[in-house]
Amino acid sequence: MIDKMTLDEFEALLDDFGSDISLWPKSSQAAARRFAVTSNGQFLLAADQALDGLFVSARAVGPETANDSNCDVFIEKLKDIPVYHQQIISDVPIRSAKKSFGIIGRLKSMVENSFYEITPTALVSQFAMFVIVLSVGVMVGLNSPQDTSDYDEIDIIETLFVADLVYELDEQ
Amino acid sequence: MFIVVQPELSSSGDEDLVGRIRSGDKRAFATLVERYGGRFRALAYRFTGDMALAEDLVQEAFVKLWTHADRFDAQKAKFTTWFHRIVVNRCLDEKRKRRLSPLPEGYDTPDTSIQVDVKLENDASNVRLQAVLLGLSERQRTAVTLSYFDCLSNQDAADVMDLNIKAYESLLARSRAKMRKMLMAEKTDLLSAFG
């Protein structure tokens, strides 16, 4: 139980619990009530209550509670947003912001992230381009005449068998 | 254009509605607009002091909600916390931008038009409150606005400001103490002026 209260202690409790002393900690209520009747206490409490009063009256005339017909017009305007704006919703799931460590980890997350960013259209067009390039390459290859003028055909196997035969004959 | 809000949607949770918006449900969007349009308009007005600007910023946030509903992750935050962050951050950005914009020619000549912050309300107590709020830092003003005007719980306001509850409560207590001191100084000045 606190016997005597200083101005600073009273002010600190006022900041924490408001001007209603019955809501303050039980151990300080008696000392607070004694301080509240002093001129300093009265001055502090009056200022705090005046502040509460300002909030109440400001809210009463403010846009929070005022019967404002412009607000209804504004609400109707907001409801029209879907008419004038197209949704940009991606199918990409929300990824957790996991931190990657090391070069391999960073590379792995880079690959994972870029995979999320590839759209099906991009994937199809990449595949189509791959097929086109491959077909053109094959066609060019097939249509080119075979050029055998630079070399003579050598049967390596034949040479090898001959070499083996010579070696065996030498052994004998 | 009139969209009839069906009863089963009006009783749906915010997060459920955002899920429906994601799949292009316009009625779900209308339900969220009905639920929060006015509240966020008032909140943005408290931050900017300019109703036209407040409406633009809130509209921008709702456009973002419609076009990018997939960015909301119900497992990470409540819809209101997420949307508060969008609106509050946008308002603060806009305020900073306006503060940094170059001064117009002849800025030092007496301005006969009503100042933005004073224009907030013609009501005397509101003008007085605005004057006191101007003495706070941006973070303190944000905390006061969320708690006393938007009436968010301390936990929700702490989430919006990305603070832990203790830090938020301490910020709010300091803001309140500063405001009270300003009011006390005002009263002392008045008393000394009258002898």
Describe this structure in words.
The complex is a heterodimer of chains A (about 170) and B (about 200). Chain A is mainly α and about 170 residues long. Among the domains of chain A are: about 5-60; about 100-140. Helices cover about 65% and strands about 0% of the residues of chain A. Chain A has helices at about 5-15, 25-35, 40-60, 70-80, 80-85, 100-115, 120-145, 155-170. Chain A is elongated and about 130 Å long. With about 200 residues, chain B is mostly helical. Chain B has two domains: about 5-100, Rna Polymerase Sigma Factor, Chain: A, CATH 1.10.1740.10; about 120-190, Orthogonal Bundle (Arc Repressor Mutant, subunit A), CATH 1.10.10. Chain B is about 70% helix and about 0% strand. Chain B is built from ten helices and no strands. Chain B has helices spanning about 5-10, 15-20, 25-50, 50-65, 80-100, 115-120, 125-135, 140-150, 155-160, 165-195. Chain B starts with 6 loop residues before the first helix and ends with a helix. Classes of the chains: A mainly alpha (about 170), B mainly alpha (about 200).
Gist of the model:
Chain A is 67% helix and 0% strand. Chain A contains eight helices and no strands. Chain B folds into two domains: 94 residues, Rna Polymerase Sigma Factor, Chain: A (Orthogonal Bundle); 69 residues, Arc Repressor Mutant, subunit A, CATH 1.10.10.10.
Q: Unreliable segments of chain A (pLDDT under 50, ≥5 consecutive)?
A: 93-99
What is the N-to-C order of secondary-structure elements of chain A (H for helix, E for strand)?
HHHHHHHH
What structural class do you assign from the helix and strand content of chain A? mainly alpha
- Helical segment tally of chain B? 10
What's the quaternary structure here? heterodimer
First-residue to last-residue Cα separation of chain A: 122 Å
* Pattern of helices and strands of chain B: HHHHHHHHHH
